[in-house]
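debug: dumping io for the single-chain case to check the tokenizer round-trip. Nothing else runs in this session.
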Amino acid sequence: MNILMPQLGETVSEGKITKWFKSAGDAVKPGDNLFEIETDKVSMEVPSTSAGVLSEIRVGVGEVAPVGAIVAVIAGEGGAAAPAPAATTPPKQDIAPRTSPSPTAAATAAPIKLDPFFEVRTPDRNYGPAKLPGGAVVTPLARRLAADAGIDLARVTGSGPHGRIVARDVQSASRESASHAGRALVPAAGAGEVMALYRDAAFVEVPLDGMRKTIAARLIQAKQTIPHFYLTADVEIGRFLAMREEANAAAPKDPDGQPMFRLSVNDLIIKAWGVALQRVPEANAAWANDRILRFRHSDIGIAVAIDGGLITPIIRQAETKSLTAISAEMRELAERSRSRRLKPHEYQGGSSAISNLGMYGVREFAAIINPPHATILAIGAARRQAVETVDGGVAFASMMTVTLSCDHRVVDGALGAELLAAFKSLVETPVTMLV
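debug: decoded output
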């Protein structure tokens, strides 16, 4: 049986093996962990689905292989290995940049899931191809990848049967787009030329890992393809903070006398943002190139800082969940984010996102939209501020500055203002987000 590099998400094209749990010649049972892989987002242990003997390891620790490549072979219980086509082990990827897969390797059909960890490759007709308005045939997977990457399918040449556009065509176009974008930003300065400017300075070179490369490519894509505009508001959060304090004070105790939950300000913000998107459903949407997708539920991505970058785990249907449920789920997702143990469905998709830098004392900032989302809410630090009262006097209030970034293709100025006003109202009268 050939063991393939699994697909951990629709936009993941390769994985790096960081550990082998078995050695060549070891017996293997279904469920035994074979190896651990790392992508730009997550690390995951990959188990065996069959019994036999691990007869061959083709991709070693520290080496990178494309999705669908044969990384090992398990011989059947009778001792005979399944026949395998010739494969070339990818070179070690320490600092030297990787090269694109060869046309021969790329000519295999796009993958479909056989089980959660392994994939086989079958003709594209299993995807149910559809026609674009211009007549080109494209697979649904290719359409989704193009929407995520902001790729115009009219500019993509299909390499599948009869010119069909498949996933690899979109991935190739995305890499080419990112390459052109990088050259456009720094037209005459490669790595050597930049380093030459600092020949007399002391510095340390930090090779880019997969996560940092992905972040760089997606931020370039977001700022060059999404027409951002920004709306900022000051929100009075006195009642908001009081409700949190009352809830935490009333939390039941466990047998050891410890509170069974402790709400954070971020937990309340997630709930308020989820409800606000339901009150302004036209803004609970995403750009899909030739259409706009409006979502029934508020699936909120929360930016979590991790070593080397960030990831955005998603609270699904946030508007339907209690504050304690959101708090417990967010805490668990954040812990697994930092250890890179999230599964693809836990950080892909979503209808909007929140980035909170208030805990660092940042008063206000504008976040970059995470495509294909149409909005992201940036949360600043709480502060005490003098404000004018209704009768013309002066009092101190707890204030927070928030900035909403909008994709103007989906959310116009008035619609964005309506969404921000809905959030402000919910925070300033927090009981209304619970009814």
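debug: round-trip ok. The CA atoms of residues 99 and 296 lie 42 Å apart.
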